[in-house]
Amino acid sequence: MWEYSEKVREYFFNPRNSGPLEEANGVGDVGSIQCGDALRLMLKVDPGTEVIEEARFQTFGCGSAIASSSALTEIIKGMTLDEALKVSNQDIADYLDGLPPEKMHCSVMGREALHAAIANYRGETQTDAHEEGALVCKCFAVDALLIEDVVRANSLNTVEEVTFYTKAGGGCASCHEGIEEILAKVKGERSGPGEVSPPMKPIAPKAAPGLTLVERIRRIEAVLESVRPMLVRDHGDVELVEVQGRNIYVHLKGACSGCMMEAATLGGIQQKMIENLGELVQVLPASYMPTGISC
Amino acid sequence: MNPIYLDNNATTRADPEAVAAMLPFFTEHFGNPSSIHAFGSQVGKALKEARQKMQALLGAEHDTEIIFTSCGTESDTTAILSALRAQPEKNIVITTVVEHPAILSLCDWLEKEGYVVHRLRVDKKGRLDLDEYRSLLANNVAIVSVMWANNETGTIFPVETMAEIAAARGIMFHTDAVQAVGKVPINLKAAKIDMLSFSGHKLHAPKGIGVLYLRRGCRFRPLLRGGHQERGRRAGTENAPSIVALGKAAELAIEHMARENTEVRQLRNRLEQGILSQVTHAFVTGDTANRLPNTSNIAFEYVEGESILLLLNKQGIAASSGSACTSGSLEPSHVMRAMGIPYTAAHGTIRFSLSRYTTEEEIDRVIAAVPPIIAQLRELSPYWNKNGPVENPERAFAPAYA
């Protein structure tokens, strides 16, 4: 059985704010009975202040789906709509002292319901084009269609690259066989009928064009800047600490530090550094920096 | 309050007599049965006795037809790979859509390796179409593998008849009988079944011990090569303590076979009637007229299985579910989907599987516990409105995101 936190169990066994809300003026429905998860979030919003006065839910789903729905209603009550829109799925998971990785999608469903309910209150329509394929990475709930699309769009060749772009495969690693199969499939399409796909070439770093130290640091910062939005989205951040020859030391902050994805994240940053600097470098956590050396 | 265990199709409690029988083989009788000295020969004798007890349970003609393995999955894998390697000119495997993952995952992999796999479909009650089966029996079929009884619904397949049909065409027949052995009478010497898989822990023996029955004369290629153990058909030092325990469990199973089909069956029926008379929008899945006596799979519409299990567990009741959430995948049980059980019900299927240890008092406690749990969850469900499902649930609930 799943390892649910005490708080998840409490919110499942004794859910707060469940049942229909007759005077609701914003309703968000997400999920479906096909997926085995469905959530209806009902809000009563004060039209003058846009404060959420009351929030209730009805959920068809597993223990963590019910607990996430209930937690969401507790979090957003008393918030203005603009404040509520800033609530992320991670906030819902944090409120419950964490969810098992396989169940993070329950918190995502909560956030989606919230956005749908607010859109409904404001008279906006929302569409969702995301189609779901078979679940490949169970740690991060990444499905086959998404991986396929990303592999195709970015011409990815390795499992590590897929992990960097989608997170898939960055946890327990048991889905690497499945990811390799998707890579092989897309690669087959790329080469076209009758053609033999060329053997994979490692990206040959261009000869170091003799960058000045300042140019080099600027480029390193630019690479970090380009990955920052992705990290911030997951409540993390990255900071350049030191550059010593081929070793670039960075400090992963917030949710990134100690995350099981740390190695994969650094690996991905390193790949980008190599491409941008045109030389082989190593991106390492600041804690690896030899002590006693000053700049 | 004592916990109630109704998940015996997942695994069973080892019988204390089986455990007592195995213990001396860790300490006093620790010898390697292959050794020539007294330490070894005592163990060799005990293994022979266990083999004969297993032979009696399966109604096999010879005790040498019994090969001890490590589990049901190993037996299944050995059987199918053996058939393909022994008959390299044949490249087709026939199986069913409702097999255990031990067979299905192997077949998926075989397909990638270039073999052809036909999966027989089932109807709404989980039954096979024998005409479809006959039509698929071509000359290059290497093996047919059909489970004796389904682990989720208990539905029994006519494997003896199917084996006869295959034998008439000269095609090998294997059955995964992990759920059936000890619950339905089996007499292999009168059947045309070439290979049969079994796992000890489903029948009150310990985990980590399995059996592959291999009919004398059936062409065979071992999975594990290395030693002469099991007459060279399964190398690796014998798991003597577990084999001895399995022998004891087989002996007890023969003794209790009648009880499974009388007392246990009555308790199962009492449970079903007790629940269904109180809960609306619930039904039994599978072929109710032809299934294992200990298994009941009930679909509760508009509620989700994991939630039911968590609430049952809170009251000390253990069962299992075909819901997507319990497996970590997004799809509900492949068995429920194959039978065309609608999504409104497939996510809420609960399997209760009894054993000879189950008591009437336990069943009555479960009958009392289930209806309030279903009512509680339906109250939370957007598909439920006070006393019944909302009208046209698919339309009443219109998600912005799918």
Q: What would you say this structure looks like, in words?
A:
- The complex is a heterodimer of chains A (295) and B (402).
- Chain A is of the alpha+beta class.
- Chain A folds into three domains: 6-121, Alpha-Beta Complex (Sufe protein. Chain: A), CATH 3.90.1010; 135-191, Orthogonal Bundle (Arc Repressor Mutant, subunit A), CATH 1.10.10; 213-288, 2-Layer Sandwich (GMP Synthetase, Chain A, domain 3).
- Chain A has helices spanning 6-13, 63-76, 81-85, 89-95, 104-121, 144-154, 159-166, 176-191, 213-233, 262-277, and strands at 26-32, 37-45, 52-60, 135-137, 142-143, 236-244, 247-254, 282-285.
- Chain A has a three-stranded antiparallel β-sheet.
- In chain A, α4 crosses α5 and α9 packs antiparallel against α10 (262-277).
- Chain B is α/β, with parallel strands linked by helices.
- Chain B folds into two domains: 4-8 and 258-380, Aspartate Aminotransferase, domain 1, CATH 3.90.1150; 16-253, Aspartate Aminotransferase, domain 2, CATH 3.40.640.10.
- Helices cover 39% and strands 14% of the residues of chain B.
- In chain B, the strands form four sheets. Chain B has a seven-stranded mixed β-sheet, with helices on both faces. Chain B has a four-stranded antiparallel β-sheet with strand order 9-10-13-12, covered by helices on one side.
- In chain B, a hairpin with a 2-residue loop joins β14 (384-385) and β15.
- The radius of gyration of chain B is 22 Å and the shape is globular.
- Classes of the chains: A alpha+beta (295), B alpha/beta (402).
- The A-B interface holds A 1, 12-13, 15, 18-19, 28-40, 58-63, 65-66, 102, 112, 116, 119-120, 125-128, 130, 132, 134-135, 138, 143 and B 302-307, 309-311, 313-314, 323-326, 328-332, 343-344, 347, 379-383, 393-394, 397-402.
